[in-house]
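Hi everyone, sorry if this is the wrong subforum. Our group has a chain we'd like a structural model of before ordering constructs, and none of us has done structure prediction before. Sequence below.
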Amino acid sequence: MTQSAPRFDPAKSKEEAERMKSGIDLRHVAAHFGFTVDSSASSANHTVMRKDAAKVIIGRSPKNGHWAWSDNTGHQGYVFDFLCEYAGMKYGDAKDFLRDFAPGVGVADLPAAPRVRTPEEKIAAAEAAREEWAALPSNSDVPAFLTKVRAIPENVIRSERFAGTWKKDSRHNAIFPYRDSKGQIIAVEKRNRATADGGRSFRLYSAGADIGVWRSNIRPNDSELVVCESPIDCMSHYAIHRELRNTAYIAIRNGVTRRQLEAIFSSLPDGMHITSAVDSDAAGNAYHSLIEEAAKRVGRPFGDGRPTSTDGGRDWNEVLASRAAAREAEVKARPPGPPRVAHLVDSKAPFVAGEAREAARLRQEEQRRQAQAAQTEQARRAADRPGPAPG
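Answer:
Right subforum, don't worry. Here is the predicted structure as tokens:
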């Protein structure tokens, strides 16, 4: 009698998959496929790993403790999704691989495993962000990073559109508040110039905080909402497209969900349409699709406002900076004009003549005033003089 094959048990298969999602360090799997840790971008809550142009953020889900990831092209998921995306495996092959997986290459370079953030920790992080924002002065100077490094005009930063959406701290960082779908501040982002070693520009998001969205001021008569990948890109877009007076802005970041966008889009004034002005790269393409899907699901008109190859940059700040650099180069290239010494010497003559005319006019007015006063005084004395006595 031949022995029959064991029956497939869906419950046991699901239990095994759950154990793999929570028990296998996803960072070990990523290291196995050539990803290395970016220590400067990692924190106690997540590990950033890179391979060529790919960037993945790995952490633990607070809902179930599973290892989870998201990348710079808009993809996300658990360990099986990672293997399908970056190793080209199918689900069954990924499970077979994980059954025999043993951590090896690159494991020694990994930091301590990220902690699972509890709901209480997220609430505490949001409260800390609100306190930090409230403690900063509202009438601070414009951060030099925004005007000198990012080439954003000061009158744009101080415009009514962006009033109250940025501040500057004691370290001269530009501070931007990020909000949840209800408009409450849940995190702040700090931005500044690159460090002396020539790395990427300084960018720090509140530790342990949920993913929020930065917003410009939105008015009832606004007809368009432009979505960018940073507040700097939003301000740059506004500086370039000054004619868009009824345009509001939001900035999203890695990890934003379609439901977040749908909630924001649904709360906008009636008739307002959505424009995607994210970066023109792989990550931007993924964001673009996410924004388009959210807009269409809530019935909002949608348009593509990403920079093109003729604009001169991958994102709208690059476009703004390149145009500012071109104008500066043009000014420097202009030949000096002829000397104006003779004009400077003669320039006093009109002013001297004007001063003399003004002095003569003032003397004439004073003489007329004195004459009128004398006539008034004579009339008063004549009125006060007593008449002849009765006979």
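For your construct planning: The mean pLDDT is 84. Residues 83 and 290 are 22 Å apart (CA to CA).
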